[in-house]
Amino acid sequence: MSHSTSFITDSTVQAAQWLKEGQLLAYPTESVWGIGCDPYNQAAVQRILDIKQRPQAKGMIVITDSAARLTPLLVALNDEQRKQVIDSWQVGSDDNDRQNRQAHTWLLPIPDALSTAIPTWITGEHQTVAVRVIAHPTIRKLCQQMVSTHNPFGLLVSTSCNPSGQSPASTFDAAYAYFDKQIGYLQADTLHYTLPSQIRDAVTGLVIR
């Protein structure tokens, strides 16, 4: 299959540049492909909501590269809650058991001091933000590239790469078949986790998904 390569890259620097310009980007995650944008760019977030026919009220998952970067967001948790969240984000470098691993997204309460740090078009109708430290080394590098004065946590929107009602793309070709030249693509493999990511409430411990 031949593709025009002007919107396909294997460079996290190039991909971050596209995101900062307001473009949408498809990229591999732990299990499937995701589609994302700069979470502080309301027009870009709205494009994703439109593509996915998703109501803004539901909120969006965001990812970043390290738990340390999220320290200001974790202060609202007690020590036990904080440890559970951070431990779930530890990834062994020699981990061969990826098939049985699961990515963990947590609903974190937003401290009053950060009430304006996370846009309402990301939180939706919730008083929490759904966030994950991604295990994918390439996407961690991408998040590092996203750190700026307006995005201090290096956040990237992460929602499954598919139109409403379709299955999430598991490969680059599947993602491209869905969205063609509407968006950019960061080419790499997923981490081949077979379990979908889990979403839990960091305060109550309840599994949401």
How would you characterize the overall build of this protein?
This protein has helices spanning 12-20, 42-52, 71-74, 79-88, 120-123, 137-146, 172-179; strands at 8-9, 25-28, 33-36, 61-64, 104-109, 128-133, 156-157, 159-160, 184-186, 198-201. The protein is globular, with a radius of gyration of 16 Å. The chain has one domain: DHBP synthase, CATH 3.90.870. The chain contains seven helices and ten strands. Helices cover 27% and strands 18% of the residues. β2 (25-28) and β3 (33-36) form a beta hairpin.
Average pLDDT metric:
93
CATH topology: DHBP synthase
Number of domains: 1
**What structural class do the secondary elements suggest?**
alpha/beta
Contiguous uncertain segments of 5+ residues = none
CATH architecture: Alpha-Beta Complex
* Strand percentage: 15-25%
Report the oligomer: single chain
Radius of gyration: 16 Å
Termini, distance in Å? 36 Å
Relevant CATH superfamily: DHBP synthase
The description of the largest β-sheet is: 5 strands, mixed
What's the helical proportion of residues?
25-40%
Q: In what order do the strands lie side by side in the largest sheet?
A: 1-9-2-3-8
Q: CATH first level: which class?
A: Alpha Beta
Helix-strand topology string: EHEEHEHHEHEHEEHEE
Please state the overall shape, judged from the principal axes of the Cα atoms.
globular
The number of helices is 7
| Count of extended strands | 10
